[in-house]
From TrEMBL:
PROSITE patterns: ROK
Protein family: Belongs to the ROK (NagC/XylR) family.
Top-level taxon in the UniProt lineage: Bacteria
MF-aspect GO terms: kinase activity
Keyword Transport in annotation: no
Protein name: N-acetyl-D-glucosamine kinase
Record keywords: Kinase, Transferase
Record-linked CDD domains: ASKHA_NBD_ROK_NAGK
Length: 337
């Protein structure tokens, strides 16, 4: 598979010309957050409205209304940059989203551009968080940023020199749909053989089947025969409860291998973690220690670390995407680390 960094725009702005404001929307299955970025590195939240997820015409009309109500914050040529919960094929621009069904099968950027009369760019939410972290988060200043999403399931994204890397089909960074490398875990003198669970993608044994919150619950049930929420399991683990401690120990052994492989393959010097599990700091700290034991490089800074832009990563990443498309970007003194 050929993977290349997103090319820089060929039509660079005139030297000294001010950046145009960028309208930004983070479109989730339930709500849309609308903001304007007057310049690279700046973001002004404006509105939050319900997402008309099932009706394309209503979605387009809602976006038009948001822009019209806030026209004074931008100008007629201001691009609209979208973060969406779904996938966008970079070859065709066609979107796929389970949470926003009305955009599935549509060339969302081109179609909305025709309706709204302005440039429209779009990226999925994981890629937008990656851009946000690489430019305005913990990855700022790092040459290669691998963003790991650890929520209900597992996802990710990759940025090089602050710019998004888009691979075939738009699935760069999707470490959740590679196989768990070793399903035999040595723990307290015992060898545990973990089954390769079926994945929603059609494969078996994907990292996604055990790496996210639902995966922790699945693993706990396999090990102990009882149903429990990931929230409770992780609470009990932090309180040194024996069953939870066993579950998390096995979890870390299984997850650290594929994440370390991702670090070695990409050459990342920072791995911001997004998603619900990122809020459990002791878990991310433990994962950081486990990954460090498995990689070739040695770092004097945290490697696997909670993302800084968890709350506004969609909007911040969309803003970065918009400014970069126009040839602007905040200087970040990127280093190789």
């Amino acid at each position: 598979m050929s993977i290349a960094a997103t090319p820089r725009t060929t039509g660079q702005p005139a030297i000294g010309s001010p950046a145009k404001p960028v309208f930004c929307v983070d479109i989730g299955g339930s709500f849309m957050k609308f903001a304007v970025s007057p310049a690279p590195g700046a973001l002004v939240p404006l509105e939050k409205v319900a997402t008309p997820a099932a009706n394309w015409n209503d979605l387009a009309a809602s976006l038009a209304t948001l822009i019209e109500r806030n026209a004074q914050a931008g100008d007629p040529a201001s691009p609209l940059a979208l973060s969406i919960a779904g996938l966008i094929d970079p070859r065709t621009g066609v979107a796929t989203s389970a949470n926003i069904p009305c955009i599935t099968g549509r060339r969302i950027g081109d179609e909305l551009s025709g309706i709204l009369g302005r440039p429209v760019l779009a990226a999925n939410d994981a890629d937008c968080l990656t851009l946000a972290e690489a430019n305005e988060g913990v990855g700022r200043g790092h040459a290669v940023v691998f963003c790991a999403i650890m929520g209900t399931g597992i996802g990710g994204g990759l940025a090089i020199d602050g710019r998004l890397v888009r691979g075939a089909g738009g699935v760069t960074g999707e470490w959740g749909h590679g196989p768990i490398l070793n399903t035999s875990v040595e723990l307290d003198g015992e060898t545990l053989h973990i089954p390769r669970f079926s994945c929603g993608c059609g494969q078996s044994g994907c990292v996604d089947t055990i790496g996210g919150a639902r995966g922790i619950e699945r693993l706990h049930h396999f090990l102990h025969g009882c149903e429990e929420t990931s929230y409770r399991i992780l609470e009990d683990w932090q309180a040194d409860e024996a069953k939870a401690a066993r579950t998390v120990a096995v979890y870390l052994e299984l997850i650290a291998d594929p994440l370390a492989l991702s670090v070695n393959v990409t050459g990342a010097s920072i791995v911001p973690v997004g998603g619900g599990l990122a809020s459990v700091t002791p878990l991310i700290d433990a994962l950081d220690r486990a990954v460090r034991k498995r990689i070739l490089n040695r770092f004097d800074h945290p490697l696997v670390t909670p993302a800084l832009r968890q709350e506004d990563g969609g909007l911040v990443g969309a803003a970065v995407l918009g400014h970069q498309s126009a040839g602007y970007g905040r200087e970040s003194a990127v280093q190789g680390h």
